[in-house]
Design brief:
By secondary structure, the chain is mainly α. The protein has one domain: Rossmann fold. Helix content is 46%, strand content 4%. The chain is built from six helices and two strands; from the N terminus they run ααααβααβ. The chain has helices at 2-7, 24-34, 38-41, 48-57, 75-81, 85-91; strands at residues 67-68, 96-97. Strands 1-2 form a two-stranded antiparallel ribbon. The protein is flat.
Length: 98
């Protein structure tokens, strides 16, 4: 995070998309790492609070933090959930966070 803070243009903005530590996606990737998938063995998944602390420790300011809901791979269910996303994203960062 310190390198990002160093190279970020003064007044610039940084947008981070992250799988939440307890999101279903992160859990599935974590399990793949435990089962031997090299790419996911060293992966770290953080909570929104963890991410905020890292950003602020690097001297950056968090202007906005919101969540995103998990969209199932079943297209019909994803379409049903999509209208709820903006409201749920403001209520929780349990899944992914931006």
């Amino acid at each position: 995070m310190y390198e990002i803070a160093r190279v970020l243009k003064p007044g610039g903005q940084l947008v981070i998309g992250d799988l939440g530590k307890w999101s279903l996606w992160a859990i599935s990737w974590r399990i793949r790492g435990w089962r031997g998938a090299t790419m996911w063995k060293a992966a770290r998944f953080r909570t929104a609070g963890d991410l905020r602390r890292l950003i602020e420790a690097a001297g950056l300011r968090v202007d906005h933090l919101s969540g995103a809901i998990f969209y199932p791979r079943w297209e019909f269910a994803a379409r049903l959930m999509a209208p709820l996303d903006p409201r749920l994203g403001e209520l929780t960062t349990f899944g992914a966070h931006l």
